[in-house]
Amino acid sequence: MKEKKGYVSFVLHAHLPFIHHPESDDYLEESWLYEAISETYMPLLTKFQKLIDEGVDFRITMSMTPPLLSMLDNKLLQRKYIKYLRRLIELSKKEIKRTSYDERLNKLAKYYYDRYSNDLHLFKDVYNKNLIEQFKKFQDLGVLEIITCGATHGYFPILYVNEKTVKAQIAVGVQTYEKYFGKKPRGIWLPECGYVPEADKYLKEFGIEYIITESHGILYADPTPVYGTFAPIVSPEGVIAFGRDIESSRQVWSSINGYPGDFNYREFYRDIGYDVDDYEYIKPYIAPNGDRVHTGIKYYRITGKDCEKDYYDLQWAQDSVNMQSGHFFDCRNEQIESLSKFMDTPPIILCPYDAELYGHWWYEGPDWIYTLFKKIYYDDCNFKLITPSEYIDKYPEIQIASPCRSSWGANGYSEVWLNQTNDYVHRHLHTAGDKMCELAYLYPNAKGLKKKALNQCARELLLAQSSDWLFIITNGTMVDYAKKRIKDHIGRFTKLYDQIKSDEIDEVFLKDISKKDCVFPEIDYRIYS
Predict the structure, then answer these.
(1) Do 446 and 399 belong together in one domain?
(2) Is the pTM of this model over 0.85?
(3) Closest CA to 158 of 192, 204, 112
(4) Do 352 and 499 reside in the same domain of the chain?
(5) Can you tell me the distance from the alpha carbon of 244 to that of 190, in angstroms, rounded to the nearest whole number?
(6) Of the residues 380, 411, 442, which one is the last residue of a structural domain?
(7) CA-to-CA distance for 293 and 84, rounded, in angstroms?
(8) pLDDT tens digits along 426-471
(9) Same domain, 244 and 229
């Protein structure tokens, strides 16, 4: 076998904010997790297993964030997911009967019934409700590298006003990873790829070797990297940075000519939750308040612009998957052939994406990954799949350069998380961060109830810091929920802070919020000292 000239590294960022409402079944936002399990996480696990069963050697990296791990491990959310699936199975069974007048529709209704029935069987009987263990299995087999993230996806380029809050995000992120995977993470997906050099010393302190950054974090580094984003750089503090490849990202992400926009693929926005005219029929399967929402059963393909939507066809979608995986394969071959002529070490093409793009937004995404990985294994090409850790081990000589402050948000810096729609939030986050450090300083050896209250303060602060709430407010979707979450966590933090300072802790209040905000059970508030 001829020597490969370069490498391709897929990194999928699996993240959702911590959403847990034991007090009610009326929170539509909890379904974000259930949709991601059925459309992204289980399909990826299924494709990984299929590749293993077929003897295909592959490599992929995934960041699994602490809030996501906490939710996947939550018994109440596991039960609610099973309830969600049973409701979809019931609906798809009714759909088989309702669509009997049309052969193509009926075939799709049967497909959904089979798919959701299989999800229930997999989740309950095969995975025993433990998806984390399934991902760990592939990590142990050496085909998947799992990396960590900030504790609640707090955005470092703004939080670092108080560096201890960044330190806590990193510390709890590493601690959560160790709890579930039994070893230290080598890499971290910086929340929103938000890089500031002030975080490097804490990344080093907690054993992080490498980070994932946006392209210009590397391209504008000082001094300018010799190989651009096609080789990692190492900061003066000793943190290695991999930058996103622009060309391969555009082929997937672009709203104009990216693969997910193919006319044969499933149309995300046409769902029977909106399409079915009979409101009484669909009412039990939409939002508890009666609002029409997505159910997950979608019968149309993208079809084209400004034309009537045609029905989704599974075979046509598969044809597009085959064609586009071939296109991506050929493009990487050409890219590496060109780059390798000018580089002393083999180039690495880093392809980072939101995991939820694969399956949730781009329904055929997991099939595309499976088809591409088989193609890379069997077909003649000049590159191999690799993880960032493997690349570091193989090519340890790395150029020293300081990455540029950056993020992967719109326009590349911080305006998504700091703008006129959400700027009011930051003074509350900074004040709470300072107060948390004050508490850790004042009560270094708290015991009993006070210690529980201090640990809950740390949880409330971390949950308030989630970059998701700021992103949602900027985006203009589910804004009321995001604002409520910030207000709730800051309110709970402030109430507990006052109670701790006055030595009058309300046990009933503490017990109530500890049940709702039950993330990071092992947290130690002294991380802020």
Answers:
(1) no
(2) yes
(3) 192
(4) no
(5) 13
(6) 411
(7) 14
(8) 999 999 999 999 999 999 999 999 999 999 999 999 999 999 999 9
(9) yes
